[in-house]
Design a protein that fits this description.
The protein is of the alpha/beta class and about 200 residues long. It has helices spanning about 50-60, 80-90, 105-110, 115-120, 155-160, 185-195, and strands at about 1-10, 20-25, 45-50, 65-70, 95-100, 125, 145-150, 165-170, 175-180. It is built from six helices and nine strands, in the order E-E-E-H-E-H-E-H-H-E-E-H-E-E-H.
């Protein structure tokens, strides 16, 4: 089975509780205006990788299984691959999985096959990003989004939903700069100004 991948970020502390490896999947048709990850929308972009390659990148052999966050693009638009990936991560000993989806929980529950994915997720952050409701707080980037605790692994307190959103800026060995987290509109404008 193949997975369309936008990228992997290691050791993030702003994409869920604790230190986590973050997988950004490629492909999203939801079209949320002001989306922070527009480069992940084109389903034909990114890299097509096998399930083994993705799991190997997220959980390196010989290391303790890290906490994992899966974002997008839209993970549920690769539903069969998402289910297979989540199950493999659990088999590797991953005990904390956070998934971000632009779909509301009600939409996911009505989506055929989504129950198998939801059964493997500890925390689901669900709902389309609405730029006019941007919060600049915690993991829910806009006020309409909801955090769903699907297991007892984490608490709402751990998710720090009401705190100021954190941002990480990583300079990769090739010189590329990756920004992750949930920057406020003001931070996004400032960084965009640096790019121009």
């Amino acid at each position: 089975m193949n997975v369309q991948v936008a990228g992997v970020l290691y050791g993030s502390t702003v994409n869920g509780p604790g230190r986590r490896n973050v997988l950004h999947l490629q492909g999203c048709t939801l079209g949320c205006r002001g989306c922070f990850n527009p480069g992940t929308h084109d389903a034909a972009a990114g890299r097509r990788q096998t399930l083994d390659e993705v799991v190997g990148a997220l959980v390196p052999k010989g290391s303790e299984a890290p906490a994992i966050t899966i974002s997008g693009g839209e993970p549920f638009q690769q539903l069969p691959a998402l289910v297979a990936l989540l199950r493999r991560l659990r088999e590797c000993g991953v005990d904390s999985i956070v998934v971000f989806s632009g779909y509301a929980m009600e939409e996911l529950q009505a989506m055929p096959g989504s129950g198998a994915a939801l059964a493997e997720i500890d925390v689901l952050i669900a709902g389309r990003y609405v730029a006019t409701e941007a919060t600049g707080l915690g993991l829910c980037a806009s006020a309409n989004q909801r955090a769903h605790l699907l297991t007892h692994r984490h608490t709402l307190e751990e998710l720090q939903l009401g705190e100021s959103a954190a941002v990480e800026i990583t300079i990769l060995p090739d010189g590329n700069v990756v920004m992750s987290g949930f920057p406020s509109p003001a931070i996004r404008r400032a960084i965009a100004a640096l790019d121009s």
